[in-house]
Amino acid sequence: MFKATVYVTIKENVLDPQGTAVQGALHTMGFDDVERVRIGKYMEIDLNTADRAEAESRLKAMCEKLLANTVVEDYRFELTEHVKEGV
Amino acid sequence: MRFGVLVFPGSNCDIDCYKAVEALGEPVDYVWHTADDLSAYDCIIVPGGFSYGDYLRCGAIARFTNVMGALVKAAEEGKYVLGICNGFQILTEAGLLPGALLRNNSLKFRCHPADLRVENASTPFTREYEAGEVIDIPIAHGEGNYYCDEATLAELKANNQIVFRYAGSNPNGSIDDIAGICNKAGNVLGMMPHPERAVSELLGSVDGKRMFTSILSAWREQNGAAAR
């Protein structure tokens, strides 16, 4: 079993209005040191495979096809192995 | 001429589209997203709404339904495909149109009449408008900020694929004030404004009506059915 954490972020050169709004709020609250806020998505996916290479290639396909829109978003993921309980 | 209006869980402009076609006097069906055959239809409308709750991204999940496989095939065959609002988002997700729709730069859901300039009046969807004409069509969206990279924008311009631009202030921050684009072949149109909500004086504008009559006259011309 692998647990994947997937991060999808808006590409650097694409405007992120949500991040800009949150940055503004932080400034209003006095956090003047905030230079930039970018908002993205975080997903957890459990994969039922023992093969790391396969898990990576499957995740890449998931990200490219559905989880990220590569026209405007970047993605990255981390894989951690974990033993199924009771096995 | 037979129209199909796709229906996804969360579509909410399907009835408006159906009524707009019905008013033309042409046959129209609702087509559920599980359907895998669109061969009966000459024009397929992908209506606005919030397919699959806009989870993940607008249109991202709808793009993988059965009916979208059939829609891609229909588009390749040259059938007319009109995506409005969420329908436009679904068409870009499906790769039938380039670019993507981002959140409005104002962060506001904008719902009001909008002035559009008809930039290309030679598509099957706009032939009854005049090039440069300004029309009044309502918008209602939170993520209508059309984005594409510079190379794609240059290509859209070179191929005359920009069909509508916002003529007044740009309500969402879209690149080059784009409100609607078509594919290279011209048979697939995506737009954020809602022509189906501008087909009766009661609705405040009739400027959307000519989009539907354009489609019909283009189809009749193509199929030699002018006498009908």
UniProtKB/TrEMBL annotation, chain A:
Gene Ontology terms, MF aspect: ATP binding; phosphoribosylformylglycinamidine synthase activity
Family membership: Belongs to the PurS family.
A GO CC annotation given for this chain: cytoplasm
Described purpose of this protein according to its UniProt entry: Part of the phosphoribosylformylglycinamidine synthase complex involved in the purines biosynthetic pathway. Catalyzes the ATP-dependent conversion of formylglycinamide ribonucleotide (FGAR) and glutamine to yield formylglycinamidine ribonucleotide (FGAM) and glutamate. The FGAM synthase complex is composed of three subunits. PurQ produces an ammonia molecule by converting glutamine to glutamate. PurL transfers the ammonia molecule to FGAR to form FGAM in an ATP-dependent manner.
Main location: cytoplasm
Record EC number: 6.3.5.3
GO BP term (any one): 'de novo' IMP biosynthetic process
Gene that this sequence comes from: purS
Pfam families (UniProt xref): PurS
Name of this chain's protein: Phosphoribosylformylglycinamidine synthase subunit PurS
HAMAP family in alphabetical order: PurS (MF_01926)
SUPFAM superfamilies, sorted: PurS-like
Domain of life of the native organism: Bacteria
Reactions accelerated catalytically: N(2)-formyl-N(1)-(5-phospho-beta-D-ribosyl)glycinamide + L-glutamine + ATP + H2O = 2-formamido-N(1)-(5-O-phospho-beta-D-ribosyl)acetamidine + L-glutamate + ADP + phosphate + H(+)
Alphabetical UniProt keywords: ATP-binding, Cytoplasm, Ligase, Nucleotide-binding, Purine biosynthesis
Known pathway: Purine metabolism; IMP biosynthesis via de novo pathway; 5-amino-1-(5-phospho-D-ribosyl)imidazole from N(2)-formyl-N(1)-(5-phospho-D-ribosyl)glycinamide: step 1/2
Stored InterPro entries: PurS, PurS-like_sf
Location of this chain's protein in the cell: Cytoplasm
Automatic annotation (TrEMBL), chain B:
Alphabetically ordered keywords of this record: ATP-binding, Cytoplasm, Glutamine amidotransferase, Hydrolase, Ligase, Nucleotide-binding, Purine biosynthesis
Intracellular or extracellular location(s): Cytoplasm
Gene Ontology CC: one annotated term: cytoplasm
Gene Ontology terms describing biological process: 'de novo' IMP biosynthetic process
PROSITE patterns in the record: GATASE_TYPE_1 (PS51273)
Transmembrane stretches, start-end: none
Keyword Cell membrane assigned: no
GO molecular function, one term: phosphoribosylformylglycinamidine synthase activity
Enzyme active site: 85, 194, 196
Pathway(s) the chain acts in: Purine metabolism; IMP biosynthesis via de novo pathway; 5-amino-1-(5-phospho-D-ribosyl)imidazole from N(2)-formyl-N(1)-(5-phospho-D-ribosyl)glycinamide: step 1/2
EC number: 6.3.5.3, 3.5.1.2
Subunit structure as annotated in this protein's UniProt entry: Part of the FGAM synthase complex composed of 1 PurL, 1 PurQ and 2 PurS subunits.
Function: Part of the phosphoribosylformylglycinamidine synthase complex involved in the purines biosynthetic pathway. Catalyzes the ATP-dependent conversion of formylglycinamide ribonucleotide (FGAR) and glutamine to yield formylglycinamidine ribonucleotide (FGAM) and glutamate. The FGAM synthase complex is composed of three subunits. PurQ produces an ammonia molecule by converting glutamine to glutamate. PurL transfers the ammonia molecule to FGAR to form FGAM in an ATP-dependent manner.
Protein name: Phosphoribosylformylglycinamidine synthase subunit PurQ
Gene: purQ
